């Protein structure tokens, strides 16, 4: 069980556990004032869907999850949250998901371990690898499901960022490279896309640790509404 300031996430039944990546992209993703519908692709425990519901109180949120056990866990977490009336968990592959309306914001912490050893647990394999959802399919799903003025935010390994940008038939509007400590290399990259060209992408960097055993102030500011430790 993982406790946040406004909600709790149980994870024993989910193929993928709570991690920093989901909190980061959930807290970083941006949307306009008129954001009414949000989609979390590969919701797992429901973490990003819950963060989105907390951040955008006027929006309805849908979490799509291919793994039945993870979807059941996400529904349990949603039911125990303050936003159960605004979050819906759908157990399906996003490639097969056909909602009545498109989304103003799509967020994903996707299965991106292309080059890692496939593990024997089928649920964890589907959650962690591009076996069930590769970059091109994710980008195509985002393009199909995104409203004309919407945004698509995703977090990927830093060395996969170029491939994701190339796969997306969308315009890059924001990029944030993330490292764990000031002297470290970038380990993750958060990318945000739009259907419309909005000029040169806004690029930034984020460091999680301060190099002295604590946390960087910018990281604290970004995630402070969620983590109990801040």
Structure notes:
- The longest helix is centred in the N-terminal third of the chain and has 12 residues, at 68-79.
- 27% of the residues lie in helices and 26% in strands.
- Strands 5-4-3-6-7-9-8-10 form an eight-stranded mixed β-sheet, with helices on both faces. Strands 1-2 form a two-stranded antiparallel sheet.
- By secondary structure, it is an alpha/beta fold.
- It has one domain: Vaccinia Virus protein VP39 (Rossmann fold).
Quickly count the domains.
Answer: 1
What is the level-2 CATH architecture name? 3-Layer(aba) Sandwich
Order of helices and strands: EEHEHEHEEHHEHEEEH
Q: Gap between N and C termini, in Å?
A: 18 Å
CATH superfamily: Vaccinia Virus protein VP39
What is this structure, in a nutshell?
27% of the residues lie in helices and 26% in strands. The chain is α/β, with parallel strands linked by helices. An eight-stranded mixed beta sheet has the order 5-4-3-6-7-9-8-10, sandwiched between helices. It has a two-stranded antiparallel ribbon with strand order 1-2.
Describe the SSE topology.
Blueprint (H helix, E strand, L loop, with lengths): L1 E2 L4 E2 L10 H9 L8 E5 L5 H9 L4 E6 L2 H12 L7 E5 L11 E6 L13 H7 L6 H11 E12 L3 H7 L3 E9 L8 E7 L7 E6 L9 H7 L7
Parallel strand pairs: 3-4, 3-6, 4-5, 6-7, 8-10
Antiparallel strand pairs: 1-2, 7-9, 8-9
Helix pairs in contact: 1-2
List the keywords:
230 residues, alpha/beta, Rossmann fold, 8-stranded mixed beta sheet, two-stranded antiparallel ribbon, globular
């Amino acid at each position: 069980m993982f406790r946040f300031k406004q909600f709790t996430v149980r994870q024993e039944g989910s193929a993928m556990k709570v991690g920093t990546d989901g909190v980061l992209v959930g807290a970083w993703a941006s949307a306009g004032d008129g954001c009414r519908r949000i989609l979390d692709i590969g919701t797992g425990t429901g973490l990003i869907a819950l963060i989105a519901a907390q951040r955008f109180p006027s929006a309805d949120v849908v979490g799509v999850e291919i793994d039945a056990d993870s979807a059941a866990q996400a529904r349990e977490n949603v039911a125990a949250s303050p936003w159960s009336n605004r979050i819906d968990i759908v157990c399906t592959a996003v490639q097969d998901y056909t909602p009545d309306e498109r989304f103003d914001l799509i967020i994903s912490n996707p299965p991106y371990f292309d080059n890692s050893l496939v593990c024997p647990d089928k649920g964890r394999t589907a959650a962690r690898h591009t076996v069930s959802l590769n970059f091109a399919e994710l980008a195509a799903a985002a393009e199909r499901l995104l409203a004309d003025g919407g945004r698509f935010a995703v977090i990927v390994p830093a060395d996969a960022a170029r491939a994701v940008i190339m796969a997306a038939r969308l315009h890059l509007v924001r990029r944030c490279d993330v490292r764990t400590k000031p002297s470290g290399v970038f380990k993750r990259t958060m990318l945000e896309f739009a259907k419309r060209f909005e000029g040169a992408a806004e690029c930034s960097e984020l460091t999680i640790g301060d190099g002295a055993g604590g946390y960087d102030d910018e990281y604290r500011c970004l995630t402070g509404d969620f983590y109990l430790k801040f």
